[in-house]
From TrEMBL:
Main location: nucleus
Lineage: Eukaryota, Metazoa, Chordata, Craniata, Vertebrata
Native source organism of the sequence: Serilophus lunatus (silver-breasted broadbill)
Protein name (Swiss-Prot/TrEMBL): CENPI protein
Keywords: Centromere, Chromosome, Nucleus
InterPro entries membership: CENP-I
Length: 282
């Protein structure tokens, strides 16, 4: 019968194999299937524009958004802890401010210098507004490890996801600052090694960007991040990780093949270490 979903399926067959569909179909059919060639066409167009040197407004290839946020400023990308927005104890006393939502005074995070200081003020520590400074500060990473504050992780993952989206050289047309992005990925990797766990925002970025990766741009840093992908189902790992890497693996140099195998070996080792921690001693 003339059911719209069946007509959409038949029109898709007629597009790719017209000899299989002999009946006439209406010209205007509701689209039920996404065009699988869309991301590839966008990636090829981005490479062409990059090579021609006359790139228009940047477009994020892998997120499906027509225009990313304005990149005139790189928000929250400072690696140095800025002055805290919290009012100090002396200022509060001078202004006679009363905070109805906090029972204790906040400790300015930029004054944090030692681990004993962290232990003494861990109950009143306030995270900085520049989330980038957390990745390079061991004391704040200790804080993340000790205090399982969901809001801290959400802030960090949101900021990290935005930065990875806007600064990725092979997914954004007019971004050519590969050195700065490599430094950013290296800082993320060091933080993951310190915490002994991968970031979910980084995992999502890898799964979305690996199909468009050429295997050359930021290769050491990308493969290091691959080694910290959390353990998940085999079907997800195969489609999101192994399939994109295998396409590069079989067409690349021996050095690249060894680098991929080394990264997967580290990934397996990290999975085993994580499972040993939660394993029953018996």
């Amino acid at each position: 019968g003339s059911q719209c979903h069946l007509q959409a399926l038949l029109s898709l067959y007629k597009l790719f194999c017209p000899e299989l569909v002999t009946i006439s179909l209406p010209q205007k059919t509701k689209s039920y299937f996404k065009n699988s060639e869309g991301p590839w066409k966008a990636a090829i167009s981005a490479i062409r524009q990059r090579n021609q040197g006359s790139s228009p407004l940047s477009q994020a290839v892998f997120l499906g958004t027509p225009q990313p946020p304005s990149r005139k400023r790189k928000w929250n990308c400072q690696w140095v802890i800025p002055a805290s927005s919290a009012i100090s104890l002396e200022e509060r006393r001078e202004r006679n401010c009363v905070d109805l939502y906090r029972t204790s005074e906040t400790f300015p995070v930029e004054q944090l210098q030692s681990f004993p200081q962290l232990l003494q003020n861990i109950h009143c520590l306030e995270f900085p507004s520049q989330m980038g400074s957390v990745l390079t500060n061991p004391l704040l990473l200790h804080y993340m490890n000790c205090v399982k504050d969901e809001s801290v992780y959400l802030r960090l993952y949101y900021w990290m996801g935005q930065m990875l989206q806007e600064e990725c050289p092979w997914c954004v047309v007019d971004n050519t600052d590969e050195k700065e992005f490599k430094n950013f990925l290296e800082n993320i990797y060091k933080a993951e090694c310190f915490l002994q766990e991968g970031f979910s925002a980084c995992e999502e970025f890898l799964y979305k960007s690996l199909p468009f990766w050429d295997g050359c741009c930021c290769r050491p840093e990308v493969l290091k991040l691959v080694s910290w992908i959390p353990l998940s189902s085999f079907s997800e790992i195969q489609s999101c990780l192994y399939d994109p890497l295998s396409q590069l693996f079989f067409t690349s140099s021996l050095y690249f093949k060894c680098s991929v195998l080394e990264s997967l070996k580290e990934l397996l080792k990290n999975w085993l270490n994580c499972n040993v921690i939660h394993m029953d001693p018996e």
